[in-house]
Structures are given as C-alpha cells and as structure tokens.
Design a protein that fits this description.
With 417 residues, the chain is α+β, with helices and mostly antiparallel strands. A hairpin with a 2-residue loop joins strand 14 and strand 15. It is elongated.
Length: 417
C-alpha cells in the first residue's frame, strides 16, 4: 500500500467517526492558533483536529493583520487544499488578508471615514495611492483646489510634472468607490476636504463681500482664494457687465480683488465682481431709444456680426445682415475693429442685456481710405524748386523784353509825329 493510500485511509477513518467535528472545505475562512513558525512557513492548530500550514507567498497578508504573528496568536486563514503532500491542510494568510482588507475598505466607505493614504506614483489622470497594502487611484478631479495642477494652456506634460511632486507624501482622503472583483479602489481628497470645509463655509452667506487673491485664470473665469483656505470661482459672465472675450487680458494670478458671494452649493462657492456695482442696463432706456442714430466703436468681429461699444457700460451687436444692403460673406468686408460708425438702434432688451444695431439702416457707408501720397525725396524737391526758379527768371526776361519793345515803339511813334 502506498503512502498516499495510507494517508487517504486514515482521513477516511477520521471522517467516519461520528463524534469528530466537521472538517473545513476549500475556500472556507477558518480560525486557528499559531503553534510553530519556521523559515518560510507558519504551522497552525485547527481546533485540535488537524494541522494547517501557511507557506511561501501565501504568508503575505494585504490586511497587515497577520504580517508579524508569533506562537500562541489566534489568526484567520483561508483553506486552499484539504491535504497536502505532508497530510496537512494547506492554508493562506494572503487570501484571508485580501478578503479582510477589501471588507474593511467597504466598511470605511460606508462609514465615510477620512483615512491616510500614501502617494506612490502619478500619471496624467491623477495619483496612485496605497491604503495599507491595497493600491488605489485618486483622479486629478478629486484633488482639493490648492493641489489641483492648474497649468496655462492645459499642457499635459506640465500637469504630470506637478502631480509627480506629490509622490512620497501622505494625503487624507475618503473612499468613494470600492470593488474587490475588479480590484478597484477610488479615493477623493476633495470629499475629505469638503467634510472639514463645511464648518468654515458655514460662516459665510450669499451676499457677503469677500477680499481674496487670484489663484488661477482660465478661459471660463478666475479662481479666488479667500478666508481660511476657501476658494471660489468667478465665471467669465460675472467678471463685468460688459462683454469680456479673454479674462487673461484683465486679470493676473496674485492680483487682489473684491467679490460678492452669489451662491453656495455644498462646498462650491460662486462669486461675482460685476454684482458689486449697479446694473447699468437698468437705465439703458433712459440713455437710448429704439430708432436713435448713435456712434459706436467696433470691439470684436465674429462671423455672425460685430460687437459695438456705445459707451463704457453698454455694448450692442450689429448682425451681419444689418451691415450692408449687399450680400457679404464676412463682417470684416464692411467694418474694422476699433473704428467708429454711425448706427441705428433696432431693439433694446434690458433684462437680457441685449441691444440690436444696424449700420445699413443708419446710412453710414464706411469711407474708403485715402490713397497714400507718394513720398518725394529731397533731391526731387530741389530739382522742382530749380525748375520753378528757372521758369520764373525766364518769365521775368520775357516781361523785360516786352516792356523794352513797347517803349521803343512809342519813341518811334513820337518821332514820326
């Protein structure tokens, strides 16, 4: 009889005894006691009915709970095999630790706990982090405002370089998504920050005027830092009552400005500069009337028309169809930026901040530019002067001869008489 058949018969006899406890099955998570530790293996007593062993890579524990066990410790392990070549139950701390670690992560997310994470690496999309021994990801969109990599023009390489600066640091975060089956762990610094910031934000109300420093200028507006590390956004439409094409033309990072809080949604604060002043459009109907002929300067030309400045507060639009009686392909065929024209007011909508204008209805045909006078050199001027002087002298000689001839004729006439 072979050794294997002898071991199998021993196990069969053990199982046949009615008073013996039920042995675990493969995949079960069991409790056991450490009885001996050797190099590369940990031996466990399973309720006095069998000996289990954890060895090799199965000793690695993601939860960290069984990383430094000693004799007498009570532990948990997952059954990999009911009987190995030595008749022992093959066990794993790794599988048990993995399961336990992910269960813990799930509980942390449900309790909305704020946890410490270690930044291990970065890519253009965000930061690679570790929670215990589990690797996770923090998208760039989940960073707090002061850590968000604002880069002029959105250069991806510059964004990556800024994110790389966080490697090796620890960041407090909240788990926002966990899925063991996909090994997915997503964290958010912003979510943890929000929980703390809500207390600070509660000190502010809509309508409050704040003073802060510009931390970022982008196409759609500017970011302002104020108070105790709070940040708000002034959208491009809230920068001024007039049309602003590019915020960078008026604002720079580090500029200090005042703004009014116009909305607070959770931890999102919206600000306005223009709301610090009265709306000039409220009095537009007192300044202008439909049918008035006014002067305006072209600020910006677009394919659909031209934006006109009537005064520092009121801007209007001349649609391409109101520029000329003739069909044109582009407004630049008729008007030029920074030039003034006479225009007729077609419509006024104070509530929508709109004013419609017409160039063709005002009858102001843009004048063609005068041809430039040909420049005359100094030598040419001298030659011209010489010719003029020569002609003058010739004319004088002719005049003198004419007078002399006239006197001679008169004298001859007197002698004859």
């Amino acid at each position: 009889m072979t050794d294997t058949s002898q071991k199998a018969s021993k196990m069969e006899k053990l199982l046949q005894k009615e008073d013996q406890p039920i042995l675990p099955k493969v995949g079960d998570l069991i409790k056991a006691k450490v009885i001996y530790i050797s190099r590369g293996a940990v031996y466990l007593d399973i309720d006095g009915i069998a000996t289990g062993v954890v060895r090799g890579k199965e000793i690695i524990d993601e939860s960290g709970e069984f990383s430094d066990v000693k004799s007498g410790d009570k532990v948990q392990a997952t059954v990999l095999e009911l009987e190995n070549e030595n008749g022992e139950i093959e066990l794993s701390f790794r599988a048990a630790g993995h399961q336990k670690a992910w269960n813990n992560l799930q509980k942390m997310m449900e309790k909305e706990e704020i946890i410490d994470t270690s930044i291990t690496d970065a890519n253009r999309g965000g930061l690679m982090v570790k929670v215990g021994k589990i690797e996770g990801f923090m998208p760039v969109s989940q960073l707090i405002p002061e850590h968000y990599p604002r880069v002029e023009g959105g250069d991806k390489n510059k964004i990556l370089n800024k994110l790389k600066e966080f490697v090796g640091q620890k960041i407090k975060a909240k788990i926002i998504d966990v899925d063991e089956s996909e090994s997915k762990l997503i964290l958010s610094e912003k979510a943890a920050w929000k929980k703390e910031r809500k207390k600070v934000i509660s000190k502010y109300n809509v309508g409050d005027i704040i003073e802060g420093k510009i931390t970022g200028v982008v196409d759609f507006g500017i970011f302002i830092e104020f108070g105790d590390g709070l940040e708000g956004l002034i959208h491009i439409s809230e920068l001024a009552w007039q049309r602003i094409e590019n915020p960078r033309n008026k604002f720079e990072v580090s500029d200090k400005i005042k703004a009014k809080i116009i909305s607070i949604e959770d931890t999102k604060i919206s600000l306005s500069i223009k709301k610090l002043e009265e709306d000039p459009w409220k009095e537009v109907v007192e300044k202008y009337k439909v049918g008035d002929i006014v002067k305006g300067k072209v600020l910006k030309i677009n394919p659909f028309g031209a934006f006109i400045e009537l005064d520092k507060d009121i801007h209007g639009l001349v649609h391409i169809s109101e520029l000329s009686e003739k069909k044109i392909n582009h407004p630049s065929e008729v008007v030029k930026e920074n030039e003034e024209y006479k225009l007729k007011i077609l419509s006024i909508e104070p509530e929508n901040h709109r004013l419609g204008l017409s160039l063709k209805a005002a009858g102001d045909k843009p004048k063609k530019k005068n041809q430039k006078k040909k420049k005359v050199s100094k030598k040419e001027e001298e030659k011209k002067e010489e010719k003029t002087e020569s002609k003058r002298k010739k004319d004088e000689k002719k005049s003198t001869k004419s007078k002399s001839s006239s006197r001679t004729k008169k004298e001859k006439s007197k002698k004859i008489k």
